[in-house]
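Wed. Picked up where I left off yesterday with Rhodopsin domain-containing protein. The coffee machine is broken again, so keeping this brief.
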Amino acid sequence: RAGARWFKTRQVPMQMEDICMYGALVSFAIMCALYLATIPTFFNITAIEEGLMEPYASLESDLVVMLKEFFVVQFFYWLTLWAVKWSLLFMFKRVTDGLPLYNRLWWAMLVFSILTFIGCCISNFTSCSSMHAWFTAGLCETPRDSRAKTISLWYCLGVDLLTDLLIMAIPIRVLWNLRISLLEKISIGVVFVVGIITMVTAIVRSVSLESTSGGGQVSTTWLMLWAAIEGAIAIIVGCLPSFAIFIRGRVSASRAQY
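Structure written out below (tokens, as returned):
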């Protein structure tokens, strides 16, 4: 992505859209590191539950650390996804410049995306009845907690899909009115609707997590797997529109007549 932008502009890509993508990459790396840090303790606990291993002295402290890592990792997971959304938004901002209506819609979309991100973070806090329950094994498994986790899962899926749809709608509507050939509209439009890939991934992830949950508790193994998959796909998708820069010159020329 950075190479494609540098190739066209011969400048180090440091626009807001680039900074957001760099942030998404850093957030994704931290998320993966946190998940990797939990694996030894997670496997030890699994082995103890199956009778393959005896409890050890530092088990309780290791368990608390693992639960804290699971708590924090969710924020970086959502930050990865939303940083990609913000990158796309800032890229599409250039399309709305000079168009008052679309410019207002862009700002509304930015505020809405920030609020939904905050909502996802809040849902993480409310997934357990208290922070003490969050960081104590076995206390976050009540019917209330199971409902809260389910609500959090589907709320985050809903706002994830909705923000993707709204973000894609902004440039597509503008592009349709540009005085360029239908083939060019389709070519650029395909680049802008790559968010559909992340939407499909998000749906598959949520359905898989729901189907593998037991007693309202989401499978930790599947949670880690799908977080890594969706985060990686989101970053790839966020990089793809940058290749539209090779045909952006023709769009800019036609936009002057719009």
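Quick read: Residues 59-96 form the longest helix (38 residues).
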